[in-house]
Structure formats: structure tokens, C-alpha cells
Amino acid sequence: MLKTFADYFVFQVVGLDAKSRLGGALDFFVYDTVKIFLLLTTIVYVVAVIRSYFSPERTRRILSHNREYVGNVLAALLGIVTPFCSCSAVPLFIGFVESGIPLGVTFSFLVSSPMVNEVALIMLWGLFGWKIALTYVGSGVVVAIVAGMVIGRLRMERHVQDYVWEIKVGAAEMQEQTFREKLDYAAGYTVGLLKKIWPYVIIGIGLGAFIHGYAPEDLLVRYAGRDNPLAVPLAVLIGVPLYSNAAGIVPVVQALMEKGLPIGTVLAFMMAVTALSLPEAVILKNVLKTRLLATFFGIVAAAIVIVGYLFNAIL
């Protein structure tokens, strides 16, 4: 139905040629814009209701009762349903450390929360099917667990900024909400989030439409196809300087996959954009010394590259 509407609007109302590059790009843009915003509105509302049961304080309390390894797994899983944005990184990190949560467990959560985004999960499911969606979740959780375990084993607590250890964050009282209040919160959160992210989504769809209509398929496959042994690290290097939420990068992922790029390369690019970014580095520099910050980025980047190569080999 949506595809029929997009085709009619672009090729009949606007009058573009279905075989032209501009027609193909605009058709992709119209179809994906309507589809993604319908998905976002529905998904974000449902997820917001789930999120209302996982406040930052409650998340801290759950993780503070678990040690390493088990804590790493639990932290990575909690990150899926508690997608705190990068602006929450500093207070969350301070609160986790003050609560006695091991450093490695804290990092498992900080990796998983932006990387394994539940909105992106449902969107990937709707666009590509459950196999790719679960591949995204599984690989993201593994990266978060491994990164946290490695950082925990390195015993790098001394590379946390000194003032963090001196802060004592009191446990905030959580006001219980009725189910009706949770629904009202979800509605307000959905409207607020859509107002906040719609430009990024439009930009992402626009980039995807450009790639879909104009990027030469043979050029992309030549430099990022299966035959290029450096395709995955190149995808990660390209993704790190970019800054986008998962909802904004999914349309780009769709266009790249339609051009024939291997799934591992595309997943590596997506993970690098959502889990590693220059703005995140600037924010985390407030709580991490340079050595720990560099170690964190290096371990996560290496894990993403390994995941990319693995999925390129088996899929």
C-alpha cells in the first residue's frame, strides 16, 4: 500500500520517469519517509512504556548487586531496553561508579545502550526480516559484553578522572507511576523524541535515497565488497566521525545493502556510527582520562571489526 502510494505520487503526480536516477531516488525517499515515521511513532510509544519501568536509578540498583561476568551480561541486556542518549553518559557513569558497580560492567552498559537500540531493532526487523535484526542485536550484545570484560580485566580504575571518586551521589527516591501515567509519559516522550530526531531521520533517508539512486553499484562493491580485505575497518573508520542516532542511520544501511554490500560490512558501519562517535568522546573525556578513553574506543572498534569479518564470512 505504501509502495503504491509512493509510486503514484512520484511517477504520476510529480511525473518523473520510473527508470531515471532522480525518479528512483525520490521514490525511495517518499516510500521510506512514510514507512519509517509510521514505524517510529508506533515503536517509540511501545518502547517508552517499557522504558518507564527502567529509570536510571533503578538500573543502577539492579547492576549494583551483580559482580563481573554475570554483571557484564546483565548490563549488556539492560542496555537494550534503556537506550540513554550520550548526554546521559557522564551522570550515569558517575552514578554507576558511586554505586560500587565494577568498571567493566559499567562499560558493558555504556556500549550496549547506544549500540543495541530497540528502535533500530524493530526497524531492521520490518525492513530486512528477523534474521538480520537478531544478528544486529546478538552481535551488539557480544561486543558490549566482551568490551566490558576486557576493560574490567585491565584494572584501569586509576584512569577514571579523580573527581569522579570523590562525588557521592545520593540514591534518588523513585516515584511510582500508575499505568495511566506511564501511558501519558509514553505519549509525551514519543512526541518529544520525534520532534528532536526528525531532522536526523530525514537526513538519513535523504542520504539513503541518494545512494539508492545515484551511487554507482560497481564503485561501492569495488571498495567495500567481499573481495576487499580492508572493507570492514574502512567502514568503521568512516562511521566513527559521523554522528547519528540509530533511527537516522537505518535508511542508509538499507540503501547500502540494496547496493550489494556484505551484511558484516554494513553492520560494522552502523555499529561504529551508533556506539563510537567524536561527540561521545568529548563527553566521556569529562570522566575518563585519555588512556582509558583510547582503550575503550580501541577495544570496541576492534570488536566491531571482528564481528564484521565474522558475518561476512558466514553470511
UniProtKB/TrEMBL annotation:
**InterPro entries with a match to the protein in the record:** DUF318, UPF0718_permease
Q: Is Membrane tagged as a keyword? A: yes
Question: What Pfam families would the database entry show?
Answer: ArsP_1 (PF03773)
Look up and give the membrane topology term. Multi-pass membrane protein
Compartment list: Cell membrane
Major localization class:
membrane
**TM ranges:** 36-54, 74-97, 122-151, 197-215, 230-253, 260-278, 290-311
User: Keyword set for this entry?
Assistant: Cell membrane, Membrane, Transmembrane, Transmembrane helix
What the entry lists under PANTHER family is as follows:
PERMEASE RV2963-RELATED
Q: Which family does this protein fall into?
A: Belongs to the UPF0718 family.
Protein known as:
Permease
- Whose protein is this, by species? Geomonas subterranea
